């Protein structure tokens, strides 16, 4: 009878293990789909941490990456953490996962009898189950190219069911996914940065051939940053918009100098060629995955608020916010710069023209931000 009960318990454990592995496989496939759909590393890592914590019935979870050349850990993602935990940093030697970093193997750490870890958990209260100082941490290394780049950590209260061996195996699967995501994103960022630099250099070379447009893209980028900050946009949005502003005229690389530098008004056919430059720019940028957001803004920076712009005739808030910001900065810088067919306007005259274009070609809210910024500038 005892053997039969033992066999039944073993079967139940095996069934539970198979169910856990099936759930893990489904979650891993979900992670794959997220990875294919987005290059947002924070979103991806948050999904990995939450999926992993839920599967092993942990109360909390977090993922840390080791900062290059430093023995510090930076919290990149979290599950049920307290406010301000994500984006915090702390020394590696004081972390519960220090032993796992040293050994390179998964480690389960209990704080019950380790005063130094109790002190860590009390101080870094974001990471412990609410109102408990005794916890169990399952720490799983993120490895890439033979080195440890971070750690996936899930947390239970010490009075909960301990992490079984199967939990460690499941966590290793998710840590592997996280390591791949981090490495791929870092490589893509390097490619995007290099591509962005090459294109920006090409634009400067293009503008340098024409004294009337020299420095235009850089000035537009500076103005866009000022407008973004006036609007209170998040830092990551500002970075994308400023980068797109630097690249907004990249499509003009393929346009003949006879059209670009013409001193009279363009013929309709020439104007049609000029209107192609946003689409040419998109084709150049979207080949690099991490430049697709910039590509979208480049594509739509000549849309008009009333829907009469190009290339798609978008209107109002259907036009991406970054493109609306670039449109205002682009128009204002063009007005206060000399052109072959006219002299530069004064800033006051340019602002008056920008006001006239408000709600017609340009977003009124962004126009208001530019006016507010210019009110603090010396008038020319």
TrEMBL record:
Transmembrane segments: none annotated. Keywords: Coiled coil. Pfam families: GAF_2, HD_5. Gene3D superfamilies: 3.30.450.40, Hypothetical protein af1432. It comes from the Bacteria. The keyword Coiled coil applies. This is HD domain-containing protein. It comes from Candidatus Abyssobacteria bacterium SURF_17.
């Amino acid at each position: 009878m005892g053997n039969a009960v033992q066999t039944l318990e073993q079967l139940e454990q095996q069934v539970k293990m198979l169910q856990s592995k099936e759930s893990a496989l489904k979650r891993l496939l979900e992670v794959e789909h997220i990875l294919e759909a987005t290059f947002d590393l924070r979103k991806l890592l948050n999904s990995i941490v939450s999926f992993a914590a839920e599967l092993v019935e942990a109360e909390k979870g977090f993922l840390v990456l080791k900062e290059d050349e430093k023995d510090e850990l930076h919290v990149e993602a979290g599950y049920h953490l307290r406010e301000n935990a994500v984006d915090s940093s702390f020394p590696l030697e004081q972390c519960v996962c220090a032993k796992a970093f040293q050994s390179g193997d998964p480690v389960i750490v209990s704080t019950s009898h380790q005063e130094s870890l109790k002190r860590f958990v009390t101080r870094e209260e974001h990471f412990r189950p609410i109102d408990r100082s005794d916890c169990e941490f399952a720490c799983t290394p993120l490895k890439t190219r033979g080195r440890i780049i971070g750690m996936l950590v899930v947390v239970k209260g010490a009075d909960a069911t301990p992490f079984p061996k199967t939990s460690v195996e499941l966590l290793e699967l998710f840590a592997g996914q996280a390591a791949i995501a981090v490495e791929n994103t870092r490589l893509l960022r390097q490619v995007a940065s290099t591509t962005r630099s090459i294109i920006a250099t090409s634009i400067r070379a293009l503008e340098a051939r024409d004294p009337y447009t020299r420095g235009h893209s850089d000035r537009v980028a500076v103005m866009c940053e000022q407008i973004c900050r006036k609007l209170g946009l998040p830092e990551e949005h500002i970075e994308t918009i400023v980068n797109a502003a630097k690249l907004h005229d990249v499509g003009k690389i393929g346009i003949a100098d006879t059209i670009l530098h013409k001193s009279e008004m363009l013929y309709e056919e020439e104007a049609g060629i000029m209107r192609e430059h946003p689409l040419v720019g998109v084709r150049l940028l979207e080949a690099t995955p991490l430049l697709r957001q910039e590509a979208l803004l480049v594509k739509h920076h000549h849309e008009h608020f009333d829907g009469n712009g190009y290339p798609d005739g978008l209107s109002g808030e259907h036009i991406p916010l970054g493109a609306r910001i670039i449109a205002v900065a682009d128009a204002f810088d063009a007005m206060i710069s000399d052109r072959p067919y006219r002299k530069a306007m004064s800033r006051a005259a340019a602002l008056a023209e920008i006001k006239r274009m408000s709600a017609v070609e340009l977003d009124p809210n962004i126009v208001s931000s530019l006016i507010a910024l210019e009110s603090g500038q010396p008038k020319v």
